[in-house]
Amino acid sequence: MEISKIVNANILDMIDNKPYLATLYLKDGYIDQIISQDSIIKDNEALDLEEKWITPGFIDTHSHPTAYGTTKTMVDCSANKISNIDELIQQFKVQKENLYKKGWVMGFGYNEKSLEEQRHPNRFDLDKISEDVAICVMHYSGHMATVNTKALEYMGVSLDDPDPEGGYYERDQNGKVNGVLIEIPATAKLQRALPEAKPEDTIYTMNLAVDDYVKSGITNTSDLLIGSRGYIDYEGVLKFLESPQRIRTRWMLSHELLEQNHNLKNIHANEIEEKLNNISNGMGHLGGVKCFSDGSIQLQTASIRNKYLDGSEAPAPLMSNNKLIDIFK
User: Fold this and answer.
1) Greatest CA span in the chain, whole angstroms?
2) What one-character DSSP code corresponds to residue 128?
3) For 180-198, what is each residue's pLDDT tens digit?
């Protein structure tokens, strides 16, 4: 049923900051008029909010809804679910058959600081889940992952491989790669080895994210990294924006995507903005370019002026300065 009138709503308009009781008239899904009420009214043809609140929607300026939606198809390894590595292993074993996808089972959200062991799970831990299926658990920061031995095999990473520039592999007591991949350059081969995504997948996972965003009062969101899997990410965004929209979106493209893909290499920002805007009926916009020049606060790989809160020394920058792309010139 389409709602055209709401009564007995407490309004907070963020201008005068004085709440008041009101009736709202809606037209084509938008607020057309707001009329103050002196008292509670009865209207059987209207939605009665019974003095509940209506406020402007929240504007999210930095998140990753495409990635967040994808995590909802993974094993939940967040701190409220997992308190130690044994529990993480058991959580995977319980859900492994349901979440198996083309040789992989994925998890997301662990925080080594919240684990009793105070360390990252490694390939020896994850091999207890399976030695035949590739297992990967993404860190809650999104800047690293940990994998089992089978996953390293699929990635083409040998136990004696050197560290990639801008990241590193944790190693065991014998100096062998132990499955812990620190920072984005160390997870690059993982991204390439994962089951190939399709643009249509973005519609499904984005709508999983939008469900939660809208329930939380977010009406405008920003995805600050499109392109980590290459051009397929951008194609997925276009597919999503062609579908019915429930939330306004702003998209930031990775500099690697703009540098390396021939479809976007010499394109002007205005052209991308016009495309996103047109296919979404004004609901989608270009946010800019995402460039990495340092690490992560959560992993304590970011170079900061002082020590971290736990007294740890800040490292030298892991990542080399990337060339910034001015697509607006």
Assistant:
1) 77
2) T
3) 999 988 999 998 899 888 8
